[in-house]
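Exercise 7. Given the encoded structure of a 200-residue chain, write a plausible sequence.
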C-alpha cells in the first residue's frame, strides 16, 4: 500500500470546455464565495504530498493558487485523459490521484480508501453505489506509456482505458453525494443551497 504523504500527487482536472455552462471555466466558478478549485485544494491537500493543476486557459489565474499548472499537449480540449497523461508525465510520485475541478465535495478520505486497494493493480476507481467515477481514480505512474498509446490511437474515453488496465473498484456508496459535479446553472444553485450539508 502506498504511503499517502510520500507516494501520491493529486491533479485537479480543470482543462474542460464548460460547454454546458456557456463555455465558462468551471474551476474558477465560485461556490459560497470560494472558487471550485480552492474547495478541492482544501479537501485534497491534507490527503496527498503534492498538488498540480491541469488547465488549458486562464493559466495565470490557476498559477495564483500556488501550485504547478500544466497545459495539455494535445490540442482542442481532448478530454480528461489528455490532462491525465500530462500529469503522469510531470508527476514525480508513484501514484497520481485525479479529481475533476467541478466536484468540490470530494471525500476527505478519498486517497486513503483508494490506496488501501492499490495492491496488485494499477488503477483504483471509486463507485458511489450506482455509478463508476473514473475521473476520481488513483493511477500508477507506470501507465503513462499505455495512456499515450491509447490517445495516439485517437481514443478519448477514460472509462474504456481504465477498464483495460489491472484495476479495482472501491465502494463509496456511504458518500455518494461527494461525487456530485457541477455542469449546469441549476446544479450550481443546488450546490449552494446544500453547501453546509455537503461540507459537514
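Solution.
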Amino acid at each position: 500500500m502506498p504511503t499517502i504523504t510520500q507516494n501520491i500527487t493529486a491533479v485537479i482536472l480543470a482543462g474542460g470546455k464548460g460547454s454546458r455552462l456557456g463555455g465558462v471555466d468551471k474551476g474558477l466558478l465560485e461556490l459560497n464565495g470560494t472558487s471550485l478549485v480552492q474547495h478541492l485544494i482544501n479537501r485534497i491537500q491534507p490527503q496527498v504530498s503534492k498538488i498540480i493543476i491541469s488547465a488549458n486557459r486562464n493559466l495565470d489565474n490557476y498559477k495564483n493558487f500556488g501550485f504547478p499548472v500544466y497545459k495539455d499537449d494535445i490540442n482542442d480540449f481532448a478530454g480528461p485523459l489528455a490532462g491525465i497523461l500530462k500529469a503522469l508525465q510531470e508527476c514525480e510520485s508513484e501514484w497520481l490521484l485525479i479529481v475533476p475541478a467541478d466536484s468540490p465535495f470530494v471525500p476527505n478520505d478519498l486517497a486513503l480508501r483508494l490506496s488501501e486497494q492499490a495492491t496488485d493493480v494499477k488503477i483504483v476507481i471509486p463507485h458511489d453505489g450506482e455509478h463508476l467515477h473514473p475521473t476520481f481514480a488513483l493511477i500508477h505512474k507506470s501507465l503513462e506509456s499505455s495512456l499515450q498509446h491509447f490517445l495516439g490511437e485517437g481514443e478519448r474515453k477514460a472509462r474504456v482505458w481504465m477498464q483495460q488496465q489491472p484495476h479495482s473498484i472501491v465502494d463509496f456508496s456511504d458518500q455518494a453525494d461527494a461525487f456530485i459535479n457541477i455542469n449546469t446553472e441549476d446544479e450550481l444553485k443546488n450546490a449552494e443551497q446544500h453547501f453546509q450539508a455537503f461540507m459537514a
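Remark. The mean pLDDT is 88. Students should compare their own answers with the one above.
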